[in-house]
Write a structure and sequence with these properties.
The structure is a single chain. With 445 residues, the chain is an alpha+beta fold. It has 14 helices and 20 strands. A hairpin with a 2-residue loop joins strand 8 (127-143) and strand 9. Helix 7 (283-290) packs antiparallel against helix 9 (344-360).
């Protein structure tokens, strides 16, 4: 271990001791973005931080076959944080880990490594990528230890207690995340009953992806303390708004926002326009990552504020990409299709790869669409060359397989496993007898 790395480990060990930490969680995510962890007593901290911890990758979805399953969890020292909702007498801290194989080589199937690759590509072009996601979620009641879809409150957009009786949960989540270094920008009730949103400040794309995972983990843990289930499912209930993860993205160069040009139309630089063009060009393939489940496509339908048409606008919220009014250092493009079920590492990596492809190849987006696309008929949409996002998991997976740029950044291992998962999920869904079918056919036939 290099001397500077050794010094960093020593510094962190002293921090762990001063924080009176008793246990350490070594966290990572599988290919579907599900958080995993190994808990170790603090006495093992030095070994874990210096050498890493071996684990069996064959038991993790999308990782490895049995015959090549030995892998190492290598903690990223910058991700150290105490979990504030744990009991004070037995403090628990966590590190987010990178996955390595023999010889300390990065594991191709590690979602965090995929994002590292995209960041490196951006760096070669002189860019830093910042993202700011807005995560929506539902708080449902539990029954006999199992989650239901019974609402905890019947609040509306921006409502306050007593209508918003889950306000205490949001408050505790905000306090916990703030203790972990998040800068919370807003917390409020969302449109649907028992639906909520907490927004945190944008940051570099790797830190933000880590924070998305931490956010979901913390929210679920704190909700459980109130006897509630926090669900990030895209469309848990038919007929009402689903949950999105609108993601604002911007590139900076030499410390300055590369999307802002005071002399350009809309004050959007060529870099911003090419980025938007790249996102729109690769939108169908990105959908496989941004909307990764069968349920995701129940949200991407007209009428519920979720985009389903490939377009962009400076104001129109029915467009896939929206450019908010702020300019200067706050100039950004909001990608509105992702839902919070997505793996943020893979989704952000594909957004970045698509944007960079747009910049490299000077892909200009089509004309803006400023009218409500939901109110257009098919003939008008065709006239305006407005295409639709994929309507199913298999359709988006097919689009991904045709997209060389995204397949390259994801790598063969990830693409193969994403395809396998999509096929398994679709087959299982197709064979299931849905309650709708029983309601529709059982009594009649």
């Amino acid at each position: 271990m290099a001397s500077n790395e050794s010094a960093a480990v020593t510094k962190i060990l002293k921090k762990i001791e001063s924080d009176k930490v008793k246990f350490i969680r070594l966290q990572f995510t599988d290919i579907q973005g599900q958080p995993k962890n190994v808990s170790i007593p603090v006495i093992q901290a030095e070994k874990a931080l210096s050498e890493g911890i071996w684990f069996d990758g064959s038991s993790i979805e999308g990782f490895a076959r049995v015959e090549e399953s030995d892998m190492i969890l290598k903690p990223d020292l910058a991700t150290y944080a105490v979990l504030p909702w744990r009991q004070a007498e037995a403090k628990v801290a966590r590190f987010i880990c990178d996955i390595q194989t023999y010889g300390s080589k990065p594991f191709n199937g590690d979602p965090r490594y995929v994002l590292h690759k995209a960041i490196a590509d951006a760096s070669k072009m002189g860019f830093t990528f910042n993202t700011g996601p807005e995560l929506e979620f539902f708080l449902f009641r539990m029954f006999n230890g199992l989650p239901t879809t019974e609402f905890e409150d019947h609040g509306d957009y921006f409502d306050l207690a007593p209508t918003d009786s889950a306000e205490d949960v949001r408050r505790d989540v905000v306090l916990a995340l703030s203790d972990m270094g998040f800068e919370i920008e807003a917390s409020h009730h969302e449109v649907a009953d028992s639906q909520h949103e907490i927004d945190f400040k944008y940051g570099d794309v790797l830190t933000t992806a880590d924070r998305v995972i931490t956010f979901k983990f913390a929210t679920k843990s704190i909700a459980l303390q109130y006897g509630l289930h926090a669900s990030f499912m895209a469309k848990p209930i038919a007929g009402i708004a689903g949950s999105g993860m609108h993601t604002h993205g911007s590139l900076s160069k030499n410390g300055k926002n590369a999307f802002f040009d005071p002399n350009a139309e809309l004050q959007l630089s060529d870099t911003a326009m090419y980025y938007i063009g790249g996102i729109l060009k690769h939108a169908k393939a990105i959908t496989r990552l941004a909307n990764p489940t069968i349920n995701s496509y129940k949200r991407l339908v007209p009428g519920y504020e979720a985009p389903c048409y490939i377009s962009w606008s400076a104001a129109n919220r029915t467009a896939l990409v929206r450019v908010p009014a702020a300019r200067g250092n706050s100039t950004r493009a909001e990608f509105r299709s992702p839902d919070p079920m997505c793996n943020p590492y893979l989704t952000f990596a594909c957004m970045l790869a698509a944007g960079l492809d747009g910049i490299k190849n000077k892909i200009m987006p089509p004309e803006m669409t400023n009218s409500n696309i939901y109110h257009m008929d098919e003939k008008t949409r065709k006239k305006n060359k407005i295409d639709m996002l994929p309507g199913s998991l298999m359709e988006s997976n097919a689009a991904l397989l045709k997209d060389d740029v995204l397949c390259k950044i994801l790598g063969e291992h990830v693409v193969t496993n994403l395809t396998r998962i999509a096929e398994m999920e679709t087959e299982s869904f197709n064979l299931a007898v849905h309650p709708w079918e029983l309601d529709r056919y059982l009594a009649t036939y």
